[in-house]
């Protein structure tokens, strides 16, 4: 490489802190200098003089470097981070309220333990935040096997709670395995969809089978969380089906989804009827008066608290004043009910507003990602949190049968909050690279059909650079060939 070009590239790239983009930027700048050099040589200059003049016409390398850094520096979505901090703070505040009003919760030391869990969660957040998310796609099968293995181990040797094996002991640590498995299934299924969605009937069969198997395993462990595992798989596939990358027959796929839905309904029906206590629990939710001391008890308590709650402040009903004696597991599954009873409906609406803002920002952030895998992953993570918040709200408002559903970033618990932080770290890791086009795409030497996948990404990146330039008034683009 010419010495003038070398010196120019060194000075121009030095301000760009994201080192992985340097090879691509160096190639682009070098190509532009060579184009200028060819024009100058056609005007009669020798090669050395042409290089020297071409470099000068490029402008000050330091200024170019600063502008490139502004374009390619990692982006942080502060609104999501702020909303997440507020939601975590609300959860800690509610635990403090429980400890203040209940001796049992105070003696259990939930505040101290939750502080430790949040600390570990922040570590997991930072670890995932700085990894290259694109490497995860190759690990999709490994994640799926790990998630399935964890749940099957739980069903075999797990710790039984309320008649169901939901926890797995790893030394002194007790893990709520469904909180680990669902995030792993979610990440793996995004990779599966990208690999198999355009491979015809065989691909659809693999996606349907892996989705139903993941849903069934989660449902056996935690019925309602198994349901939103199915929603996640369906949402991930439907999102890809709407994209331009999907090459299949959409009508055929819809028919397949309807058939799969019938299979799912059949499995749920069998699952409920297979164990009479599940059917009794549903009937206790529909008509709690028929069994007020057993299957209808929790529904009666929740509906009693909701009916006696006030607009602002705590209600005066004895069930609200001594909620910890009537409603078990407030710190994990019934925080929304606790907020309504102790702080009023307006406070609960405020909490939901903060959560809503965080989710809306998450879904909007997903639309800004050029990389297809990153965009799908962001949509899947946003859907993961949205489904979990929705299921928790439905349970806490007694709109569905009572079951254990954690509330992201708010509920007490180790494994759940650590993986919530890790997923949000992955989300923001993808977002921070939204304006970065990896050099691997440009250097790819695959055939022309494969390279077409990257044209839109590269074109979007080029347009972004042009839009940030104050000197450009008009842009004319010519695409040669097909």
Helices and strands in order:
Layout: H1 3-13, H2 22-42, H3 47-58, H4 61-72, H5 78-101, H6 103-108, H7 110-129, H8 140-157, E1 159-161, E2 164-170, E3 173-176, H9 177-196, H10 200-221, H11 223-241, H12 250-274, H13 276-286, H14 297-308, H15 318-321, H16 323-326, H17 335-343, H18 345-366, H19 372-396, H20 414-432, H21 439-442, H22 448-451, H23 455-467
Antiparallel strand pairs: 1-2, 2-3
Describe this structure as you would to a colleague.
- It contains 23 helices and three strands.
- It is an all-alpha fold and 482 residues long.
- It starts with a helix and ends in a 15-residue tail after the last helix.
- About 4% of the residues have low confidence.
Describe the structure in brief.
The chain is mostly helical.
Q: What kind of sheet is the major sheet?
A: 3 strands, antiparallel
Give me the count of strands. 3
- Radius of gyration from the CA trace? 28 Å
Unreliable segments of 5+ consecutive residues:
437-454
Percent of sequence in beta strands? under 5%
Mass-distribution shape? elongated
* Class computed from helices, strands and strand pairing: mainly alpha
> What string gives the helices and strands in order?
HHHHHHHHEEEHHHHHHHHHHHHHHH
Please report the number of helical segments. 23
Structural features:
single chain, 482 residues, mainly alpha, three-stranded antiparallel sheet, 23 helices
